[in-house]
């Protein structure tokens, strides 16, 4: 597996596909660029899901999140893109992606996207 940023998410088999259980992945060091100013934006990303047949492989998730570092993205867009990409990769029963953005210009932003929504 590469050790550079990548948009590729890998799925692994869920060892307990017959049971509903919750997986929570937290990334306190997410960064991307403001598409208006080019300045860095910093956020915490929380991904919570109930898997079906597949789980997301964690190193691929780390590299995926890293891939946004030099990319311009609005907070609302990046949150929804993360959700869409994870849904395509692992097709969970339920999933929520929440991003909590550091203060910029006196405003803290929290964006939550869910499936089913």
Tell me about this structure.
This protein is an alpha+beta fold and about 120 residues long. Helices cover about 20% and strands about 40% of the residues. It has helices at about 60-65, 75-90; strands at about 10-15, 25-35, 40-50, 55, 95-105, 105-115. The chain has a four-stranded antiparallel sheet with strand order 2-3-5-6, with helices on one face.
Keywords:
117 residues; 2 helices; alpha+beta; four-stranded antiparallel beta sheet; two-stranded antiparallel ribbon; 6 strands
In short:
This protein has 117 residues and is an alpha+beta fold. The protein contains two helices and six strands; from the N terminus they run E-E-E-E-H-H-E-E.
Q: Residue ranges: pLDDT <50 for 5 or more in a row?
A: none
- Read across the widest sheet, the strand sequence of neighbours is 2-3-5-6
Number of helical stretches of at least 4 residues: 2
Describe the sheet with the most strands. Answer: 4 strands, antiparallel
Strand pairing plus helix content: what structural class? alpha+beta
Q: Give the overall shape.
A: globular
Q: Give the N-terminus to C-terminus distance in angstroms.
A: 33 Å
Beta-strand residue fraction: 35-45%
Radius of gyration: 14 Å
- SSE order: EEEEHHEE
Helix content: 10-25%
Mean pLDDT metric: 95
Give a count of the beta strands, DSSP E runs of length 2 or more. Answer: 6
């Amino acid at each position: 597996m590469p050790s550079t940023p990548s948009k590729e998410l890998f799925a692994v088999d869920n060892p307990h596909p017959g049971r509903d259980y919750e997986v929570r992945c937290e990334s306190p060091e997410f960064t991307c660029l403001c598409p208006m100013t080019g300045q860095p934006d910093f956020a915490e990303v929380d991904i919570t899901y109930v898997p079906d047949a597949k789980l997301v492989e964690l190193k691929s998730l780390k590299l995926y999140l890293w891939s946004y570092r030099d990319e311009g993205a609005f907070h609302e867009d990046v949150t929804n893109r993360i959700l869409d990409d994870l849904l395509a990769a692992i097709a969970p029963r339920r999933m929520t992606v929440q991003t909590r953005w550091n203060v910029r210009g006196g405003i803290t932003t929290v964006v939550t996207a869910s499936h089913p929504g």
